Amino acid sequence: VGPEALSLWKNKSTFTSFGVFFLQMGWGDLGAFGEPSKETPNLDQMASEGMLFLDFYTANPLCSPSRAALLTGRLPVRNGFYTTNAHARNAYTPQDIVGGIPDSELLLPELLKKAGYINKIIGKWHLGHRPQFHPLKHGFDEWFGSPNCHFGPFDNRALPNIPVYRDWEMIGRYYEDFKIDLKTGEANLTQIYLQEALDFISKQQASQQPFFLYWAIDATHAPVYASKHFLGTSQRGLYGDAVREIDDSIGKILKHLQKLGISENTFVFFTSDNGAALISAPKEGGSNGRFLCGKQTTFEGGMREPAIAWWPGHIPAGGVSHQLGNVMDLFTTSLSLAGLQPPSDRQIDGIDLLPAILQGKLIDRPIFYYRGNEMMAVRVGLYKAHYWTWSNSWEEYSK
């Protein structure tokens, strides 16, 4: 790795905190990736100040498996988050699934604790809603958010609305205590999640505590929502309103790091759990740019994601990388920056991206496209082999 990282590890008075923005957005939703309306000025500036990854992938084209992969550094077929039914069409965890992340898995926050990190998740957990799967049982110290997405509203009896938690305590439910207007799309949730992030960062900076912030909000997941200030402001409809609010929030978080004087001590990464959900188009679906299909599929539109690394003073501004990356790499890269080794008792699929980020090197590695327990495709270099294809058209979905 580069001398910058090595000197950081050796200097005990300096720590590296981590911020991961993990959302559902498509490759073509950002101006930096070619979206013509250019309504993401803050993310575009993040890219101009950091490094853009053009060939970055998720580990699965659905929410839950990709989140499990990010936090474990392992493919879903290894960490237990996969299904086996009909080419795994239902490879996610709705509220009536009783399983969750296995105790045998070691999550990134559990390992960062060994280096004295304080860890917080804000937003969607999606790795099990039963008590044994609670984020605070898997390394997180704080949580504000929900075990699942804001599906609903439900009837509150046979199928109650999704709960929202602060740490161990349930403090309300979506649509009831946390309002979401399905007619207008108005909801103040992104602003609440933003303030949670700002307060957490301020608290850790005041105590000189290294931290891991996992900001996993769901405003761009159907049913899409945005706060009143952003409604009707985008050329792209309600989905664009939500993207604009997310962009504004990320800009405020990055400026907050700079204001507190800790931006050079904080490695930040923005990416997505899967491609834009074309099944929610046209009103609530995003853009995957030039790529075929979207969420649920192992075509590029379902698995190639926007990705930006930001670390002022360490990552050269305006960098563009063609390194084949994957969300699982954030696990290994974060451990590397914290001076920790990945677990040696299991197969880790993520690689350390520091040579690519700090030195511009290209690491030879394959990308596997899984859906459930089936490897649908594989990419090596410039070539991709499809073994099985499945699109998200209603015609095929109904078969």
Automatic annotation (TrEMBL):
Identify the Gene3D superfamilies for this entry: Alkaline Phosphatase, subunit A
* Keywords tagged on the record: Calcium, Disulfide bond, Glycoprotein, Hydrolase, Lysosome, Metal-binding, Signal
Note whether Nucleotide-binding occurs among the keywords: no
Q: What Gene Ontology molecular function terms does this protein carry?
A: arylsulfatase activity; metal ion binding; N-acetylgalactosamine-6-sulfatase activity
Under catalytic activity, the entry for this protein gives: Hydrolysis of the 6-sulfate groups of the N-acetyl-D-galactosamine 6-sulfate units of chondroitin sulfate and of the D-galactose 6-sulfate units of keratan sulfate
Q: What is its main location?
A: other
* CC cofactor: Ca(2+)
Coiled coil: which residue ranges?
Answer: none
GO CC, one annotated term: lysosome
* Domain Sulfatase N-terminal, chain residue ranges per copy: 25-339
**What's the superkingdom here?**
Eukaryota
> What is its subcellular localisation?
Lysosome
InterPro entries named among the record's database cross-references: Alkaline_phosphatase_core_sf, Sulfatase, Sulfatase_CS, Sulfatase_N
- E.C. number(s) listed in UniProt: 3.1.6.4
Has the keyword Cytoplasm been applied to this entry? no
PANTHER family recorded: ARYLSULFATASE FAMILY MEMBER (PTHR42693), N-ACETYLGALACTOSAMINE-6-SULFATASE (PTHR42693:SF47)
Q: Which family does it belong to?
A: Belongs to the sulfatase family.
- What is the protein's quaternary organization? Homodimer.
Q: What is this protein called?
A: N-acetylgalactosamine-6-sulfatase
Organism the protein comes from? Spheniscus mendiculus
Instruction: Give the gene name.
Output: Galns
